[in-house]
Design goal:
There is one protein chain. This protein is α+β, with helices and mostly antiparallel strands and about 200 residues long. The protein has five helices and eight strands, in the order H-E-E-E-H-H-E-E-E-E-H-H-E. The strands form two sheets. A five-stranded antiparallel beta sheet has the order 3-7-6-5-4, with helices on both faces. Strands 1-2-8 form a three-stranded antiparallel beta sheet. A hairpin with a 2-residue loop joins strand 6 and strand 7.
Length: about 200
């Protein structure tokens, strides 16, 4: 876990360089939330195979998860409060296992990215509500009266969600074709994804 955290921070440094930003020290508060420095906010995420880092001049959050089967109880706990969308329902059919997993991790990573951006813990996950599904790459959510966009993409059986309060960040990333192509190796603005030891930024 320590090694993954170190790699995630290296990924963040690439993100900072790509964004033309800098942070002297990467520190967290007593609750484990990243502390912004001179108006630069940051967030990292890591799993067994990949790490990701994002930096921006607004509160920002990122989450990276490997897509895998989930049961009904966990699915309903995370997605059940968003029942205004009929498709946010667990399907019992054996052929729906992958669909359930894809949907669950799309919603879960979106909510985790949002709570990270707001500096609160996973206990607040249920307070994040999906308010609009724009397309496969963009959701809109609400948290305590604040509406936020969540940009999403998919990389080798992983779902990646990131959110930032500044629409300009999303405009640059989205218009550059990052989402449409599904690639995570072009070093866009404030996102760096790192597999194993090989950096995947241009």
């Amino acid at each position: 876990m320590r090694a993954l955290s170190v790699c995630a921070r290296k990924s963040l440094l690439i993100s900072l360089a790509a964004s033309g930003l800098s942070i002297e020290a990467l520190e967290k508060d007593e609750h484990g939330a990243p502390i912004p420095v001179n108006g630069v906010y940051w967030s990292i995420s890591h799993k067994d195979e990949y790490v990701a880092g994002i930096a921006a001049q607004c509160p920002v959050g990122i989450d990276l998860e490997r897509v895998r089967p989930v049961g009904r109880a966990l699915f309903n706990k995370v997605c059940g409060s968003d029942g205004q969308y009929p498709f946010l329902m667990f399907q019992e059919h054996p052929m729906a296992v992958q669909k359930n997993a894809d949907l669950f991790f799309r919603i879960f990573t979106a909510k985790e990215a949002v709570v990270k951006s707001q500096g609160v813990g996973l206990s607040q996950l249920a307070a994040v509500k999906v308010t609009h599904v724009v397309d496969r790459f963009l959701l809109e959510v609400a948290f305590n009266g604040v509406h936020l966009p969540v940009f999403q993409t998919y990389w080798r059986r992983h779902t990646i969600s990131l959110t930032c309060a500044s629409p300009a960040i999303f405009g640059r990333v989205y218009d550059d074709g990052f989402g449409a192509g599904g690639y995570a190796d072009q070093g866009h603005e404030a996102l760096s994804i790192h597999p194993e030891i090989r950096w995947m930024t241009a």
